[in-house]
Structure formats: C-alpha cells, structure tokens
Design a protein that fits this description.
The protein has 6 helices and no strands. The relative contact order is 0.17. With 165 residues, it is mainly alpha-helical. The protein has a single domain, classed as Ferritin, core subunit, four-helix bundle (Ferritin, Up-down Bundle), CATH 1.20.1260. Helices cover 77% and strands 0% of the residues. Helix 2 packs antiparallel against helix 5 and helix 5 packs antiparallel against helix 6. Bound molecules: fe (iii) ion (FE) (2 copies) and magnesium ion. One fe (iii) ion binds next to helix 2, helix 3 and helix 6. The site of magnesium ion has 5 residues, from helix 3 and helix 6.
C-alpha cells in the first residue's frame, strides 16, 4: 500500500480489514445461499425465482471479489480458509432444506435485510475515515437494497397469484 494511500485513512487499518473480512464471509455464504437455492427450488414461479436467485448469487460473488481486492490493497489477508466463513459471518447460512419457493425467497430476504443492516453500520464507521472503502461499501449497499426489493416483489406476486387462483 502506498504511503499516501495509508496517510488518508484516518482509522485503525486492522479494524477496517477485520470488518471487510467479516463482510467477505457473509458475501460468500450469501452467494452459496442463492446459488444452491436456485438449484433446489420448486413451486410458485420456479423459473422466475431460479433466474433471480442465480443473478443475485453472481452479484454476491462480485461483492466478495470487490471486498477481497480492497483487503489486498490495504495489505491485509483475505479469508484463506472457508472454515473461517462460519467463524466470521454475521448473517449466517440457512440451509434450504425446504425447496418451496416461498420459503427459499424468505430465507434470502432475511439474509438481505441482515446485509443491509451490516453495510449501513459499516458506512457510519467509515465515513470521513476511509473514503475509498466507504464508496465501495455504498455501492454494495445499493445492490443489496435492490436485492431486497426484487425478492419482496416476487413474494408479493406469489401472494397475489395465490389469492386469485
Ligand atoms: Fe452482497
Ligand atoms: Fe444481496
Ligand atoms: Mg435482482
């Protein structure tokens, strides 16, 4: 990391790296949560749900990549062992044991709401302290908000369909 890069970060670097690794654990688990959900899902709007979950899975993987790149840029070590995903996660992992599309959508929605809370708190910590990480997190948060909206919309559509059929 360059001297000037380091100089403009006015908070403990280790703290930034720890927070980013926690977020990285959540992103990987979220990517798998969506991906495996898209494979096992059955029921209402199967194809729509599969497509949406797969798209979100790719977004979460991209977030994991952005976070990893930033950790490396800060001279930190990104999570090397997948065992640490479970140790560092805040939002956890909900095995999609029930393939019903409503249940899977609800699990993912819970995950998104957790992620939104985490990134919102992280933004408060980073503001005016590490502007580059701040902007990256703001970008990720924007995606998570869109994810929450998309999942809510499909759940609404299912409810409307159930009532009219
Ligand atoms: Fe994400
Ligand atoms: Fe998301
Ligand atoms: Mg979407």
């Amino acid at each position: 990391m360059g001297k000037q890069t380091k100089a403009i970060i006015s908070m403990n670097l280790k703290t930034v790296i720890t927070e980013l690794n926690k977020a990285l654990a959540d992103e990987f688990l979220a990517a798998y949560q969506y991906w495996i959900g898209s494979k096992v899902v059955k029921g209402y709007f199967r194809k729509t749900v599969q497509d949406e979950l797969l798209e979100h899975s790719k977004d979460e993987f991209r977030h994991a990549e952005m976070i990893t790149d930033r950790i490396i840029q800060l001279d930190g070590t990104p999570i090397i062992n997948p065992k640490d995903w479970y140790k560092l996660t805040t939002c956890g992992f909900m095995p999609p044991t029930n393939p019903n599309s409503i249940e899977i959508l609800k699990q993912n929605l819970k995950g998104e709401r957790c992620a939104i809370g985490i990134y919102n708190n992280l933004l408060k910590k980073l503001k005016h302290k590490d502007e580059n990480t701040f902007h990256m997190v703001a970008h990720i948060l924007k995606d998570e908000i869109e994810h929450e909206n998309d999942l809510e919309a499909i759940l609404d559509d299912i409810e409307v369909t159930k009532k009219t059929s």
